[in-house]
């Protein structure tokens, strides 16, 4: 059992000090990914990477008791929390009371493949929910790779599959998400 998994089990069993042990172990990876995600945002973006990590962490270890299975489960949940925070933030900014308007974003061949992607997070969220209903494991893979920033080997370990499988699923998932987002952009 890894250190993160041991601490998650302690948190689940009510050890109040365990949460203090967990943050130093996961913070750097979460912060790197938050910074990577924020690098593609507007320069006047009001949400900072540190705030994104802290908000995600609070959501994960807040009032709701989550029966943590292992490190992979925690990082998948962190990816989902970060995704929801970014989407909620984007929706608030787009709300009419803020003067927001939908802005069409052209996607390119490297969709979900580079830090510079300027992806409409709301459209991505809808497509990711659709992928989840089709194949939850592939949706988890996208969350781990895109929102947490795990490498192919880290994702393979977290999901308990081979590197080749992760590479196939990643290629397939990016294509499906791109198709769904492109078709929804054509509908609006």
Provide an overview of this structure.
This protein has one domain (3-187). By secondary structure, it is mainly α. It has helices spanning 3-12, 18-39, 49-60, 71-94, 121-134, 136-148, 152-159, 163-187. The chain contains eight helices and no strands. The longest helix is centred in the C-terminal third of the chain and has 25 residues, at 163-187.
Compose a concise summary of this entry.
The protein is mainly alpha-helical.
Oligomer: single chain
C-alpha Rg, in Å? 17 Å
Task: Report the count of strand segments.
Answer: 0
Instruction: Flag low-confidence runs.
Output: 104-111
Q: Give the CA-based shape.
A: globular
Largest sheet at a glance? none
Compute the number of structural domains: 1
Class from helix and strand fractions: mainly alpha
Mean pLDDT, nearest integer?
78
Beta content comes to under 5%
Helix-strand string: HHHHHHHH
Share of helix, binned:
55-70%
Tell me the span between the first and last alpha carbons. 49 Å
- Helix count, per DSSP? 8
Give the SSE layout:
Layout (H helix, E strand, L loop, with lengths): L2 H10 L5 H22 L9 H12 L10 H24 L26 H14 L1 H13 L3 H8 L3 H25 L1
Helix pairs in contact: 1-2, 2-3, 3-4, 4-6, 5-6, 5-8, 6-8, 7-8
Sum up the structure in keywords.
8 helices
